[in-house]
Amino acid sequence: MKVLVIDCCVRKELSATAVLLKAYLEKYCRDCETEYVKLYEKELKPLLGEDIIYRDSLLLKGEYDNPFFDLARQFRDADRIVIAAPFWDMSFPSLLKVYLERVCASGITFGTSAEAGLQGLCHADKFVYLSTCGGFVKGENEGARYVRILGQRLLGINETEEFIIDGLDVDPSKRAQVLKDGIKRLLS
Ligand SMILES: Cc1cc2nc3c(=O)[nH]c(=O)nc-3n(C[C@H](O)[C@H](O)[C@H](O)COP(=O)(O)O)c2cc1C
Fold it and tell me: Among 33, 96, 114, 120, which is disulfide-ready with 8 (CB 3.0 to 4.6 Å)?
């Protein structure tokens, strides 16, 4: 099983979400072939007008092997995709959106046809979405929800499994304990 880990834990060694990710990988991915994309080490930029023109010209010519699509091909070919991202401003850091923008490429991760409409082309059986939140999110976690809808409606990844720990910042003196208890609850 080829697992692609999308690491959006931008606070790196200070990140609680990174601790949750490590615990998850130790429990579920010991024997997996694991590839990491550390988003904070990539120089990803939002797509601007000229990028779209360039991207579309490549797609029109069928140049799917162009380095512009390296991330998209890697994403398409993974057997499972693990995303670790903290809860920021009701969803996740914009860096993850910028990455997903790069990954969503017509002809690579999804296709379109007049008869069938949108068709996901990704191989992964599911997304695993890991996050930690400062407060208690009411209802569904918006970050996880976005990823689930993107998988279902565009990319052909029909399942999203969530591992989310809420309430880390409610009492800063208990942050480490809340994280520890959450990991125990979710992963044991
Ligand atoms: C820029 C930023 C935005 C945040 N937005 C929210 C928020 O909307 N709701 C919330 O409950 N916590 C919010 N938090 C708190 C984080 O979700 C919480 O501290 C989380 O555990 C951080 O994960 P990390 O340690 O992996 O970075 C925010 C933190 C930062 C730095």
Answer: 96
pTM of the model: 0.97
Helix (H) or strand (E) holding 163: strand 160-165
Instruction: Round to whole Å and give the CA distance between 176 and 7.
Output: 20
Q: Which atom of ligand 1 is nearest to the CA of 169?
A: 19
CA 47 to chain centre: 18
Number of domains composing the chain: 1
Distance 160 CA to ligand 1 centre (A): 21
46 pocket-lining for ligand 1 (C-beta < 6 Å): no
* Tens-digit pLDDT profile for residues 63-114: 999 999 999 999 999 999 999 999 999 999 999 999 999 999 999 999 999 9
Instruction: Tell me what pLDDT residue 108 has.
Output: 97
Q: What is the CATH number of the domain that holds 136?
A: 3.40.50.360
Instruction: Point out the ligand 1 atom lying closest to the alpha carbon of residue 132.
Output: 21
What are the residues facing 2 on neighbouring strands?
Answer: 33
CB distance 89 to ligand 1 below 6 Å: yes
Nearest CA to ligand 1 atom 31: 88
> Could you give the CA distance from residue 98 to residue 115 in angstroms, rounded to a whole number?
30
User: In the predicted model, what is the mean pLDDT of residues 141-167?
Assistant: 98
pLDDT at 185: 97
Cβ–ligand 1 contact at 131 (below 6 Å): no
- Check pLDDT > 90 for residue 122: yes
